[in-house]
Specification:
Chain lengths: 467, 53
């Protein structure tokens, strides 16, 4: 007989141990914005190297459109398929097991490589600030990854409370910088009209704008990570759309402020190669207070991003284990902390190994590639979702407007981004596609026989139309 | 000063990694595998209906 034991925070049925449902919309916001905000502190500015300062602004808005579509589509599907694994659980129910397996791998790769990039960035930033001979970034990388893994191991509520605080501080620092340079007055501190002229706005023409898409992704990469909290939020149908859309609005504002301040303080040729655009902007104001604030904010943004990435990668890996797509050993939940502790520990040495052997560019490229593959899937996924379960056939927490326009826009922008990645990192793109193809063969011919097919589909939905 | 911070980072990393390994061993030897892997995707939705704080 199953006995319902009620604690202050959750309900445990008999011997079942499940993830803890304790999060609210603010945690969803902290998870999404926390993962992304580091992209304002480094990454987006390489778009200026590809196409000039104006190209960086164009991709800010166009890629913003891509991610607004992502956020809307994700909010609709996730508010209906509220399970850990996010897009993986969506793919499993809507497309099929092979797609789901691939999507989970996209997620794990995207988040683990982003975590690695964050740790390397944090280590490099400290070493740059210290300026001490013989000091290397390795100890800071190790501490970042291990301390955050420990935090994630100990519980999701504290993990995302910490993320909320550090993300908010990093975000406020951008706002403080913006208002400190008198943004309403050109010529006092900002010199946009001198630095971005008709002659140098698009130095490589429109092909430069296309090439800039690859790094424009950094303004928003990871906002879709909010869905990984689906099984741990108190009210998924309300919290997930609310937190995700609020996060997207926050990021659009941050991206616009960041571009305006940085493009008004640095020539595009320097902006496109620096690793610390906002920290440099703080230095260029001449204020030691702003310089130190932006240095600390860069570290906090990297920490928040790595923290959210550990959370999300572990949930995706955990979900694969729970459905036996991988050994079920990975689906263990800690009986006290209610976290997927084995998945967290398994991914920890992998992240450390990549952080010590890979360089920042490689890690970032693998993360972006996996992310864009995932967005391409999302555009197809929503079309199938609406076709199989039209409006009114199942209860949705949120219904996105203008369907199928966002899906078409998303798909087209993903194609442009793939072309941009091919221009810069063609061999990595081909290698990664080959990897996913081979791993799909392994899953289809070997691993799928271990899956309990009937247990995969858990949503109490009616039969899809046409079946 | 920065070198001291760097050594402290190594120390903290090693301590926390050891703690997690110890806790992992303790949990895995205290609870059955069936209990630890008992989470089910669909069940949580049903459980949440009874959720109270």
């Amino acid at each position: 007989m199953t006995v319902a034991v009620e604690t202050r925070e959750t309900v445990v049925h008999g011997d079942r141990v499940s993830l803890l449902r304790v999060l609210g919309p603010a945690h969803v916001w902290a998870l999404g914005v926390g993962i992304v905000l580091v992209g304002e502190f480094t990454g987006w500015n390489f778009a200026a190297d590809k196409g000039g300062a104006l190209a960086a602004l164009i991709v800010c808005w166009v890629v913003g459109l891509l991610y607004t579509s992502v956020a809307m589509i994700d909010s609709e599907v996730t508010s209906t398929v509220a399970a850990a694994g996010g897009q993986y659980a969506q793919a499993k129910h809507i497309v099929g097991p092979l797609m789901a397996f691939n999507v989970a791998l996209f997620l794990v790769f995207a988040y683990t490589m982003l975590e690695v990039s964050d740790a390397i960035l944090l280590g490099d930033t400290i070493v740059a600030k210290a300026g001490v001979e013989g000091l290397t970034h390795n100890s800071f990388i190790a501490a970042t990854i291990v301390v955050l893994a420990w935090l994630n191991y100990r519980g999701v509520l504290m993990t995302l409370n910490v993320n909320f605080v550090i993300t908010a501080i990093a975000y406020i620092s951008i706002v403080i910088l913006f208002f400190s340079v008198s943004p309403w007055t050109q010529g006092a501190v900002l010199k946009l009209n001198e630095l971005v002229t008709p002659g140098n706005a698009l130095p490589y023409g429109w092909i430069g704008v296309i090439a800039a898409f690859q790094f424009g992704i950094w303004y928003y990469l990871g906002i879709e990570g909010t869905t990984q909290a689906a099984e741990e939020v108190r009210s998924p149908a309300r919290s997930l759309p609310y937190g995700t859309m609020a996060g997207m609005i926050t990021l659009l504002i941050a991206a616009a402020m960041t571009w305006y301040v940085c493009a008004s303080l640095m020539p595009w040729a320097y902006l496109g190669i620096t690793y610390y655009p906002l920290w440099d902007a703080g230095k260029l104001t001449g204020s030691p207070l702003l310089e130190n604030l932006l240095f600390i904010a860069t570290l906090l943004a990297a920490l928040a991003s790595a923290n959210g990435c550990i959370n999300d990668a572990a949930r995706a890996w955990f979900s694969l284990g729970r459905d036996r797509y991988l050994p079920s050993w990975f689906s263990a939940v800690h009986p006290k902390f209610r976290t997927p502790y084995r998945s967290i520990l398994f991914l920890l040495p992998i992240a450390l190994a990549f952080a010590f052997i890979a360089d920042l560019n490689q890690a970032i490229t693998f993360s972006i590639l996996s992310g864009v593959l995932q967005y391409t899937f999302m555009s197809i996924n929503i079309m199938m979702f609406r076709k199989k379960w039209p409006l009114g056939s199942i209860r949705r927490g949120y219904t996105h407007p203008f369907h199928p326009l966002p899906a078409i826009v998303l798909f087209c922008l993903c194609v442009v981004t793939f072309f941009a990645i091919f221009l810069g990192f063609g061999s990595q793109l081909i290698a990664m596609i080959a990897f996913y193809f081979l791993i799909s063969l392994w899953f289809h011919f070997y691993r799928y026989k271990f899956v309990r097919r009937g247990d995969q589909f858990t949503m109490p939905w009616p039969k899809p139309q046409g079946y | 000063m920065w070198m001291t911070v760097s050594y402290a980072c190594w120390g903290i990393s090693i301590l926390l990694a050891l703690w997690m390994l110890y806790d992992w061993f303790k949990v895995d030897t205290t609870y059955s595998e069936e209990t630890l892997t008992s989470s089910r995707e669909g069940e949580l939705e049903a459980v949440s209906e009874k959720h109270r704080i």
